[in-house]
Design goal:
The chain is of the alpha+beta class. It has 14 helices and 30 strands. The chain has three domains: 201 residues, FAD/NAD(P)-binding domain (3-Layer(bba) Sandwich), CATH 3.50.50.60; 85 residues, D-Amino Acid Oxidase, Chain A, domain 2, CATH 3.30.9.10; 113 residues, Glutaredoxin, CATH 3.40.30.10. Bound molecules: flavin-adenine dinucleotide.
C-alpha cells in the first residue's frame, strides 16, 4: 500500500469530499501532519442553517488538542444540567458532576458556527475549501483513485488522488459510488426545529428543559441569548405550531418568542455502513452512520471518526503506516458508531413508547444517583473505547484499560515548567511514557537507555520518562509531582505505556519487554522509516 509515490505530481494525495464538521476535522488532522489535502464541497459557500448543537466533553478534548477549545468556548453556551418535565412539573434531572475530563460540561454551539471555526483553522494551516465542486463518481485501481467532479469554474473534470474519504453526509455519493450498503431504518415521525429568543423565560441558560410527553418539545440553550427548540409534529406548518407554544407555557405561562426563525422540518434515520473502507476509499461521519438525533451524538461521532482516521491515513500517505493500521479505522470506529446507532434506537423507543411505560422506566432510572451518573457519563462520550481493536495490546494496567482514552493528569513538572498529560499528548505523533514509580533514578535512567534504541526509527515519537518523588532535571523527563499520572494508570512499579496520537492507550507493559514494544510499534509503523505520523 505505497500511496505516497502513486498520485500524480501536483495532485493532493488525499481528496476529502464534503466540508461538514467531519471533513473539516479530517482535513485539519491531515494538514497538520504535512499531508496535502483537497477538500471539496458542492455548496457554493458554508451552510448557514445547522442541525447539531451539542459538543460533548470528549469532542471538546479533541478540539483542545488542536488548540481550538477557547474559540469554541467563546462562541458557545455551557450546558450543565438536563431536566425532564411533564405538565409543568420536574420529574427527573441529571447533571455533570465529577466528570473525568478537563471539561466538565457539554458545550452548546450551532453547527454552522462549528463549521465556521473549523474552516477558519483549516485556512490558517494553509488549506482551501473548494466550494461549488461536486463529487460525481470514481474509479479506483491498486495505486489510486480517479475522481470525477463537476465545478462551476471548470465543468466536469477527473482528478487523481491516492486516497479518497467520503465525508459527504447522509446521502453520500461516495458511499453509493463504492457500492457500500447502508443498512438500518428510516423513522416515519416528522420533527421540526427553530431558533428563537425567549421572553419571560427566567429559567437557567445552562439547562435543557425537556418535555417528553406528546407532543415532545425540547428547548436547548444556544449562545447569544438564543434557544433552539426541537419538537415532534404531524404537520409541517410555516409558523411555530400552537401545541409547541402550549408546552412552553406549561413551564412558563407568560413565555413569548422574539425573532423566531421559520421552523425547518426533518425525518431521522438509524443506519450503519457495512464497511468504512473499500480499497482506497474510506467513509466517515454521516456518510458512514446515521443515529437518531435524540441523544445528539451524530456530529460528535463524525468528528471522532476523523480524529481516529487522520493520524492513521497521514502515516500511510507518508509511507510510514502499515496497511493494518489503516484497516483498524474500520474495526475501531464501526464498532463504536454501531453502539451509538443502537443506543439512539433504544432511547427513541423509550420516549416514543405509546403505553408510557418507556418514559416511566426512564424517570425511574434517573431517580437513583447511579442512574443519573450513568446518563451523564454516556452523554460525555469519554468512556467510548476500542478494547477489541487489533491495534491495541492486552495490558497489565489496573487504572486505565488498554484501548481506552487516557484521562488528563496535572502536576507534571519538567525543566521547562509545569504541564498536564493532555498538553503533552497534543503533538501529532505517538507518546511513549516510562513511568519510574519508586525505582531509584539511576535504575530508571538505565531502563530509558535500553528503550531508546527501539524507538530510534520513529522520529516523531515523544519519549518521556516520568518519575515519582525525584525532581526532573533533564529534557525528556518529568516529575509526577502529585502522583496523579501513576495513579491514573494504576502503576506502582516501573511501567512502559504507549499512547497513540488520538490519546488512546495501546500498550502497557514492563519496561524490560522491549521485543513486545518493538512488535507493537511494528504493527502500526514500518520500522526504521523515519517519522511515523
Ligand atoms: C435535528 C438534528 C439535530 C442534531 N443534533 C445533533 C447534536 O446536538 N449533536 C450531534 O453530535 N449531532 C447532532 N445531529 C447530527 C449532525 O447534524 C450530523 O451528524 C452532522 O452534521 C454530520 O456531519 P458530517 O460532516 O458527517 O456530514 P454533513 O454535515 O452532512 O456534511 C456533509 C457535507 O458534504 C457536502 N456534500 C454532499 N454531497 C456532496 C457531493 N456529492 N460532492 C461534494 N460535497 C458534497 C455537503 O454539502 C455538506 O457540506 C443532529 C441531526 C439532526 C437532524
Amino acid at each position: 500500500m505505497a500511496g505516497e509515490d502513486t498520485f500524480q505530481t501536483g495532485e493532493s494525495p488525499v481528496m476529502v469530499v464534503g466540508a461538514g464538521p467531519t471533513g473539516l476535522l479530517l482535513a485539519i488532522e491531515l494538514l497538520r501532519r504535512g499531508v496535502a489535502v483537497r477538500l471539496i464541497d458542492r455548496l457554493p459557500k458554508p451552510v448557514e442553517w445547522s442541525q447539531a448543537i451539542f459538543i460533548k466533553q470528549r469532542t471538546i478534548e479533541i478540539l483542545a488538542s488542536l488548540g481550538l477549545a477557547e474559540r469554541f468556548i467563546a462562541e458557545g453556551q455551557w450546558v450543565r444540567r438536563v431536566t425532564f418535565h411533564s405538565e409543568g412539573r420536574q420529574l427527573a434531572a441529571y447533571e455533570f458532576k465529577n466528570i473525568d475530563s478537563p471539561f466538565q460540561n457539554m458545550l452548546s454551539i450551532s453547527e454552522s458556527d462549528t463549521i465556521h471555526l473549523l474552516t477558519e483553522r483549516f485556512i490558517e494551516l494553509g488549506g482551501r475549501v473548494e466550494y461549488a465542486t461536486e463529487f460525481v463518481g470514481l474509479a479506483q485501481d491498486a495505486d489510486g483513485v480517479d475522481v470525477t467532479v463537476r465545478s462551476t469554474d471548470e465543468g466536469v473534470t477527473t482528478r487523481r488522488a491516492a486516497w479518497v474519504v467520503g465525508t459527504d453526509g447522509y446521502h453520500s455519493a461516495v458511499r453509493e459510488a463504492i457500492g457500500d450498503d447502508f443498512d438500518g431504518r428510516n423513522y416515519p415521525e416528522l420533527w421540526g426545529v427553530f431558533d428563537t429568543r425567549l421572553t419571560e423565560w427566567p429559567r437557567a441558560r445552562d439547562t435543557v428543559h425537556a418535555q417528553l410527553d406528546t407532543p415532545l418539545v425540547l428547548p436547548f440553550p444556544l449562545g447569544a441569548d438564543r434557544w433552539r427548540i426541537y419538537f415532534r409534529t404531524d404537520v409541517a406548518e410555516p409558523g411555530v405550531p400552537e401545541p409547541v407554544m402550549a408546552r412552553l407555557r406549561a413551564l412558563e405561562p407568560d413565555v413569548g418568542l422574539a425573532d423566531p426563525q421559520p421552523p425547518q422540518y426533518f425525518h431521522s434515520h438509524s443506519k450503519l455502513a457495512r464497511t468504512f473502507q473499500i480499497g482506497r476509499v474510506l467513509l466517515a461521519g454521516d456518510a458512514a452512520h446515521a443515529s437518531n438525533p435524540i441523544q445528539g451524538h451524530g456530529m460528535n461521532a463524525g468528528i471522532q471518526d476523523a480524529h481516529n482516521l487522520g493520524w492513521k491515513l497521514a502515516a500511510v500517505v507518508n509511507g510510514r503506516g502499515t496497511e493494518a493500521l489503516l484497516a483498524s479505522y474500520d474495526a475501531e470506529r464501526r464498532a463504536v458508531d454501531g453502539e451509538i446507532v443502537h443506543a439512539g434506537d433504544e432511547a427513541y423507543a423509550w420516549i416514543t413508547d405509546a403505553t408510557g411505560e418507556g418514559l416511566a422506566e426512564l424517570y425511574t432510572f434517573l431517580s437513583t444517583s447511579e442512574g443519573r451518573a450513568v446518563a451523564a457519563m454516556a452523554e460525555t462520550e469519554i468512556g467510548l473505547c476500542y478494547p477489541q481493536s487489533p491495534m491495541v495490546c492486552e495490558g497489565m494496567s489496573e487504572g486505565t484499560a488498554v484501548g481506552a482514552r487516557l484521562g488528563d493528569a496535572a502536576g507534571l513538572l519538567g525543566p521547562e515548567g509545569a504541564t498536564s498529560l493532555h498538553q503533552l499528548l497534543a503533538h501529532p505523533g505517538p507518546t511513549v511514557l516510562l513511568l519510574g514509580a519508586d525505582a531509584a533514578p539511576e535504575t530508571v535512567r538505565e531502563m530509558a537507555a535500553a528503550i531508546a534504541p527501539v524507538l530510534d526509527g520513529f522520529d516523531d515519537i515523544a519519549f518521556l520518562t516520568v518519575t515519582r518523588g525525584a525532581p526532573a532535571i533533564a529534557s525528556g523527563t518529568l516529575e509526577d509531582s502529585e502522583g496523579l499520572l501513576h495513579k491514573r494508570l494504576g502503576v506502582d512499579a516501573p511501567t512502559l505505556v504507549v499512547i497513540r496520537p488520538d490519546g488512546f492507550v495501546s500498550l502497557c507493559c514492563a519496561p524490560g519487554e522491549l521485543e513486545r514494544l518493538a512488535t507493537h510499534l511494528g504493527r502500526m509503523y514500518r520500522a526504521g522509516t523515519g517519522q511515523p505520523g
